[in-house]
Design a protein that fits this description.
It is built from nine helices and 48 strands. The chain is mainly β. A seven-stranded mixed beta sheet has the order 25-38-37-34-35-30-31. A four-stranded antiparallel beta sheet has the order 20-19-21-22, with no helix packed on it. A three-stranded antiparallel beta sheet has the order 13-16-17, with no helix packed on it. Helix 7 packs across helix 8. The radius of gyration is 61 Å and the shape is elongated.
């Protein structure tokens, strides 16, 4: 083989055709212009496990490790896991390290950057780091649809000390208050101050109305009285402790009552143990910080009432633990429970009885539905009342009531004994449902034939439009005579209205009835009680008095009057005389005459005197003189006992005694 053409095999001694074939193969497969492919190639002149490069002669050579930056490498044998690489010119790269959540490279002029987080700005931008994330936000939404809140806002385009409003384009602008507010006649007045502000005041009439609150403390007061070492002291503070706000015609002011309390020396105003002294304690508008006391009355000038006292001596005030009477004058606007003073007044008024105004006239119907008049009888008694007007606190309408026509109009028997149905038992017919009077027992006592009794009828006024009711109180006894029953001489009628009905119950009438044979009642009389105030009792139990049982001590048919007549008198012509200690004593003759002031040692006076016999005068000679009080009279004087025996038709003895218009004739017989 020749060597003229490197890489080409040239056989010397071979068939020309073979030689030509070999030359063509060498040129195409291994020649300089060929691209042969091999399954592998081993070059013994290279370093194992290294990169290759060509040298200046294009000969393959091994490259040293690590690959330098100039050769396209990093110049480092290893790199930090998750780290960031920094360029160092031709030198090896500089590892920045592995970043944590939210860290990013932050540049620094002339130096390598550093890994750091974005911290944000307080109250402006909030930076929140996450895994592979950084979230930037504001403390609150500020988009066009948001409603942000700021502690303050300065807008350089506005005028200082002016109101701010929006213009027609909804942009903020400065404005004067008078452009937006106006007063209201008889309520609030407004005047422009010329500097964008205005003066607002209550109208004169409104201010006058508020003056009705002058002379009060806004809070509840606590005024106490104590006595130590002979000195009586009154102490004032707010209930529960604290200062008090005063309201006078010149406005509000604070009375300092905190540590120490406001005090006043009351020693000079006390009374005695036998005659306690009334004391008035107050604060004058002209001296808002000083407590004042008086024994006479409240002052005539503007003031705040504090307390109305009744004080015994200083010593007794101390031993009694305070004043005999201490009425704190609380006219506060509201109390500690925030209830207003007006509600307290209304609560007090609602403790009063209901007040009758008009209507509610009571009539009675019989079993046939016809009006029952006095003196007539019926087997059924039905009550009927007209509509009327009754006041609780406010005015209400009492509806018309008719037991005969309206099925729901029935009465309630307030004090019905338990065995008869109990308290507030319902009745649709009085004759059927009322058969006893109350005596404190569960069964009561039967009303017997031909006895008289009284029923007190009263109403319950509920709010207008709601059902109201008719009530009946049974008596505690019965009578044998009509006159005693009508006069209710023993007080058997029960006028009490239970306390549960205070403010709603009102009296209507007292009916006097008589039970006769055949289960009939005779209508005897009616006493109109409308407008009269009833006594109020707790509960509904009404027990009998001793009067209703007195009859049983002598005879069941007798009433209280009969008992007095039969039991107290033991002597003929006796008279019951009061002893002055709550009892009676029977007296006769001279004893009773002395008791009633006509005894022998008394000097009674009479407007006239008629004598059927002689008149003995226990004094000296009789003389006559003109009575200085009445010219038509004669006064007789004597020095011994004389008897005026009579006046004969003709003059005798002493002759005629003439008066101004009348001639008196006296015959005087001397009795020695």
């Amino acid at each position: 083989m020749g060597a003229k053409n490197p890489g080409v095999i040239t056989p010397r001694n071979c068939d020309p055709s073979v030689r030509q074939a070999i030359q063509r193969l060498s040129t195409k497969v291994f020649g300089l212009e060929s691209n042969p492919s091999f399954a592998g190639l081993t070059l013994s002149g290279l370093t194992a496990s290294s990169l290759l490069e060509t040298d200046a002669s294009k000969v393959l050579t091994s490259i040293a490790s690590p690959l330098i930056v100039g050769k396209g490498g990093t110049g480092a044998a290893t790199l930090t896991d998750h780290g960031i690489l920094l360029g160092s010119g031709t030198g090896a790269v500089t590892p920045l390290g592995a970043a944590t959540n939210g860290q990013i490279p932050i540049g620094s002029t002339g130096a390598d950057p550093v890994l750091a987080t974005i911290t944000g700005t307080a109250n402006q931008v909030v930076s929140t780091s996450g895994i592979g994330t950084i979230t930037l936000s504001t403390p609150q939404d500020i988009h066009t649809g948001a409603n942000p809140t700021f502690a303050g806002l300065t807008l350089s385009g506005l005028t200082a000390t002016r109101l701010v409003s929006t213009d027609g384009s909804s942009q903020l602008e400065s404005s004067d208050i008078v452009a937006w507010l106006t007063g209201t006649t008889d309520h609030i007045s407004m005047s422009d101050d010329g500097d964008g502000t205005a003066t607002i005041d209550l109208d004169t009439n409104t201010q006058t109305l508020l003056d009705s609150l002058n002379g009060i403390f806004l809070e509840t007061i606590d005024f106490t009285v104590s006595s130590v070492g002979g000195t009586v002291t009154g102490s004032l503070e707010q209930d529960g402790g604290g200062d008090l706000i005063q309201r006078f015609s010149d406005g509000y002011s604070t009375l300092d009552c905190t540590a120490p309390q406001c005090t006043i020396d009351l020693t000079a105003f006390v009374g005695t143990d036998a005659v306690p002294a009334e004391v008035f304690v107050y604060i004058l508008q002209s001296g808002k910080t000083t407590l004042v006391a008086s024994n006479s009355d409240w002052p005539a000038t503007e003031h705040i009432k504090i307390a109305n006292l009744l004080l015994r001596s200083a010593a007794s005030t101390g031993t009694d633990g305070g004043a005999l009477v201490n009425r704190n004058w609380n006219d506060h606007v509201q109390s500690a429970d925030n209830q207003g003073h007006i509600t307290h007044i209304e609560e007090h008024l609602r403790q009063e009885d209901a007040h009758y105004k008009s209507g509610v006239a009571l009539t009675i119907k019989n079993a046939a539905g016809a009006d029952l008049t006095t003196g007539n009888s019926s087997t059924a008694i039905e009550l009927v009342t007209a509509a009327g007007t009754i006041y609780q606190l406010h005015k209400h309408t009492f509806p018309a009531f008719d037991m005969y026509l309206t099925a729901t109009d029935d009465v309630h028997i307030t004090n019905q004994p338990t065995d008869e149905g109990g308290a507030y038992g319902t009745s649709v017919d009085l004759v059927t449902d009322i058969t006893v009077y109350v005596d404190g027992t569960a069964s009561g006592t039967a009303i017997t034939v031909n006895r008289y009794f009284n029923l007190v009828v009263w109403g319950v006024q509920n709010r207008s439009g709601e059902a109201s009711h008719i009530m009946i109180n049974l008596p505690t006894g019965i009578y044998t005579t009509s006159s005693n029953a009508v006069a209710d001489v023993d007080g058997f009628s029960v006028f009490n209205i239970p306390s549960q009905f205070k403010g709603e119950g009102f009296l209507i009438a007292r009916l006097t009835m008589r039970l006769i044979a055949g289960s009939q009642w005779t209508y005897v009389a009616q006493e109109d009680l409308r407008g009269q105030m009833p006594p109020i009792t707790a509960g509904v139990a009404v027990t009998t008095t001793d009067h209703s049982l007195l009859a049983n001590l002598i005879a069941p048919a007798d009433d209280h009057t009969q008992y007095i007549k039969n039991a107290e008198f033991t002597q003929n012509s006796g008279i019951l005389v009061g002893t002055g200690v709550g009892t009676f004593v029977e007296e006769v003759g001279a004893t009773v005459r002395t008791s009633i002031g006509v005894g022998t040692g008394d000097s009674p006076q009479f407007t006239g005197l008629t004598l059927a016999g002689s008149l003995s005068l226990g004094f000296g000679d009789l003389v006559s003189e003109q009575n200085p009080d009445a010219v038509d009279a004669i006064r007789l004087k004597g020095t011994a006992s004389h008897t005026v025996a009579g006046c004969p038709a003709s003059p005798s003895g002493i002759g005629h005694l003439l008066g101004t218009r009348v001639t008196f004739r006296l015959f005087v017989r001397m009795v020695d």
